[in-house]
Amino acid sequence: QVQLAESGGGLVKPGGSLRLSCAASGFTFSDYYMSWIRQAPGKGLEWVSYIYSRPNTIYYADSVKGRFTVSRDNAKNLLYLQMNSLRAEDTAVYFCARGHYNMDVWGQGTTVTVSS
Amino acid sequence: EIVLTQSPGTLSLSPGERATLSCRASQTVSSNYLAWYQQKPGQAPWLLIYDASSRATGIPDRFSGSGSGTDFTLTISRLEPEDFAVYYCQLYGSSRTFGPGTKVEIK
Question: Ramachandran region of residue B52, left (φ > 0), alpha (ψ -120 to 50) or beta?
């Protein structure tokens, strides 16, 4: 069964850091682009980042460039999002998804709250 | 950057009725790289349509996508109770953005 499961969300103070993880199963993880998309409370969807490892291809939205770092461990079927210098406007549910064009598999999301 | 506009913001319909949702791009969408997603409260989005008109795996044929250039449409031929949700269009390829969404609610 194809599945994605995010973890690592929580409450963090402005300026703080958090690392999200996404565990993939049921498919050949290394074959796929993987994306992070977020959704602020009551708002729409925003593409955050995507990564592919063959060749190494990475994209960041302007809103997170220089603060967030995406990475993956194909041996462990894990996707990561390291988030530094967090701001209140980064508060959102963060989803990982398979693909970078249209995303056909999504995780259930993990909530990040940036507040003092 | 291409901006997507969705209309209407809210669509109030009854089960069995036809729903027509619009997504308009501020510039021509290359290769019809446009997808549609359904999202229910507390859930992740679910891919319905990709490349403007191709149904994703397992999507019922009451869902159809059409359009090209700057104007795209998602049609639900006969609304089922489980179809009441928010629908997002999404651009991909050289630009990546989501539309603001259309809520389909029970009238």
Answer: left
Per DSSP, the residues of B53-80 read TEEPTT--TTEEEEEETTEEEEEESS--
pLDDT of res. A11: 98
**CA of A101 vs chain B CAs: smallest distance (Å):** 5
CA-based nearest residue in chain A for residue B56 = A104
List pLDDT tens digits, range A67-96. Answer: 999 999 999 999 999 999 999 999 999 999
The enclosing H or E element of A113 equals: strand A110-114
Residue B61 sits at the chain A interface (C-beta within 8 Å): no
Contact call for B99 and A44, based on CB within 8 A: yes
